[in-house]
Amino acid sequence: MKLREIRLSTTPSAEDIAQLRLGDIVYLDGLMYTAREGVYMRALEGKANIPMELPSESAANFHCSPAATIRSDGSFDMGAVTATASFRFAKWLPEWMAKTGARLIVGKGGMTSRDYKEYFVPNGAVYLSTVGYGTGALLGRGVENVEAVHWNEELGLAQAMWVLKCNKMGPFIVASDLNGDCLFERENAKIAEGLHRVYEGTRPATLKRYGETDDRSDEVI
Amino acid sequence: MVIKIQDLRNVAGDLMAKAAIEIPQDYLDGLKKAAASEEGELSSFVLQAMLDNYEAAKEDRRAMCGDTGVPRWFVKLGNEARVEGGMVALEEALRRATAEATTGVPLRPNRVHPLWRTDHDNNVGIGAPEIEYGFEPEGDWIDLITVHKGGLFGTDYRMLFPSDGIQGIKRFYLDSLVAFGKRGLACQPAIIGIGLGGSKDICMTLGKRASTLRIVGSRNSDPRIAELEDEFMELGNSIGMGAMGFVGKNMVIDCNIEVGYCHTGGMPMSVHAFCLSSRRAVARIWPDGRVEHRTDPDWFTPYQRRDTVDWPLQQEAAE
Questions:
Q1: Domain of residue B221, residue span
Q2: Cβ B65–A190 below 8 Å, yes or no?
Q3: Per the database record, which ranges form the Fe-S hydro-lyase tartrate dehydratase alpha-type catalytic domain (chain B) (predicted)?
Q4: Do both B163 and B296 map to the same domain?
């Protein structure tokens, strides 16, 4: 297997990010925070003060709700962690990146190359995909400590901002680079070449769906 | 004799943890076979990572995936089964087991109100967990089955018509696999369940049960449907797509088809994907307190697939 393995800080330098290539396997060290629609709405639309120093404490935004609980004594029980699909957060990410200096967006499924070119590359950011999905137990092992849980009262456990101390947390796959290229789109294009053979002889539905196309390079995001 | 409610509570708690932590053996065997045959470099890496992940989950007794799905229950009762406190007590036991496991395992508190996004942090709410029932002609036991299926991608429904035929069914099957397989949204390779027929809601139910309540390697009792299952599995694996939507040849660990009689003018179809963390756990409980754990829900018995008005009870007893 010739996949490259890389240890990466969650406050990476510009050079650290520039060396990443599509398909590299990455393990993270340092603080990473979870933020998804709940946090974005509260911070960006509700203008609440973000309870961390960003990006100095962390430049890694995990699209994740952990399988975790807060015990009655206030300590945390962190079980498994996996990502949730990131394309749903494209609406907030440009403003979030500008405000927080996030350079590693970690999630499921990636974004489009248009997203990467429009606001990832100008911010010197790349996308890391979780593997599987999902290697929740392996990633859970990579969480050395839960440093804090912010906005739990306001947003609930699943949408709260969990601050995780990562120790060789992974694996993740580099899914975008500083050219704005997209790993998933590269793979989609290769697969699309052979799709006509698989579809041969099948019959389009008698009752069409409004807006339906037969373009097999289409995606649902 | 009645089945004791405390026995049901204990078993329900065990099942919640088992489903979240332990990959069922039939799926694991299927995935190992897939990993051995996979040639795509990235796809292979992903499958190996998943195999490592199942080990880590079991060793650490932590959930295998951070998204622990939406817990639900299927309850099968033998015709003579009686529960201490009645069915309301049983439902309370299942709701309580769901809530307690959410903090105990822990699971992700996934269940929220669709509009107000209220989260009780315990996976319990209006209509949650779903509890569905089935019956068998004989027996004083209860089967408790919990399934924690992921909730967002990989499922679709379409009203097809007799004129669409098998080739129309194939088209919609491929459309669903490719649409949700890209970027790995369906968390494949998966157990694909196909529901054919029924009314619209039951069509969805049939497909969901085909993916979650039948094990890898099982075949429909109708030999012609069983042939279609083989054919569809091969078709799905010839798309050229593997885990995470990377180039590969393992998309479908198995394909299960279930049917129900439908409106004479239609042929409704649903497609469901039970993911890389196919969370299900099963146990049978008897009135004397005996408990037998297994991984096969064995839901689709001849009685569940009957197409006659009556079911000759005495005759079965005599055989």
A1: 151-274
A2: no
A3: 12-283
A4: no
Q: Search chain A and give the residue with CA nearest B108.
A: A67
Q: B177 and B101, same structural domain?
A: no
Average pLDDT over residues A81-100: 96
ipTM: 0.94
**Closest residue by Cα to residue B246 from A21, A121, A175:** A175
**SS3 per residue for B193-239:** EEEEECCHHHHHHHHHHHHHCCCCCCCCCCHHHHHHHHHHHHHHCCC
Pick the CATH number of A5-182 from 3.20.130.10, 1.10.10.1100, 3.30.450.40, 3.40.50.10320: 3.20.130.10
Same domain, B220 and B267: yes
Nearest in space to B240 (alpha carbons), one of B30, B40, B36, B37: B40
Signed CA dihedral, B294, B136, B99, A80: sign only: positive
Same structural domain, B158 and B117: no
Q: How many domains does chain B have?
A: 2
- Residue B270 inside a domain? The answer is yes
Using the Cβ of A65 and the Cβ atoms of chain B, whether some distance falls under 8 Å is answered with: yes
Kind and range of the H or E element at B39?
Answer: none
- How many contacts does A have with B, using Cβ atoms within 8 A? 215
From chain B, the residues in CB contact with A139 under 8 A are 66
What pLDDT band is residue B189 in, cutting at 50, 70 and 90?
very high
Share of chain B above pLDDT 90, in %: 96
Residues 116-135 on A with a CB inside 8 Å of B are 129, 131-135
A101: confidence class by pLDDT, cuts 50, 70, 90: very high
Q: Which residues of B touch A173 (CB under 8 A)?
A: 42, 244
Report domain extents, chain A: 5-182
Q: Is B68 in the A-facing interface, judged by CB distances under 8 Å?
A: yes
For the stretch B73-123, pLDDT in tens is 999 999 999 999 999 999 999 999 999 999 999 999 999 999 999 999 999
Residue of B nearest to A22 (CA): B42
Long-range Cβ pairs for the range A143-149 (8 Å, 24+): A143/A78, A143/A81, A143/A167, A143/A169, A146/A68, A146/A76, A146/A78, A147/A31, A148/A51, A149/A70, A149/A76
Residue of B62, B103, B153 lying closest to A80 (CB–CB): B62
Summarize pLDDT for B227-281 with one digit per residue, the tens. Answer: 999 999 999 999 999 999 999 999 999 999 999 999 999 999 999 999 999 999 9
B153 touches chain A (CB under 8 A): yes
Within this chain, do residues B99 and B248 fall inside the same structural domain, yes or no?
no
CB contact, 8 Å: B57 with chain A?
A: yes
Cβ distance B66 to A171 less than 8 Å, yes or no, reads: no
Are B250 and B192 within one domain? yes
A68·B106 Cβ contact <8 A = yes
Position B319 pLDDT exceeds 60? no
Q: Which of A73, A169, A191 best tests the B interface by mutation, with the highest count of B CBs <10 A?
A: A191
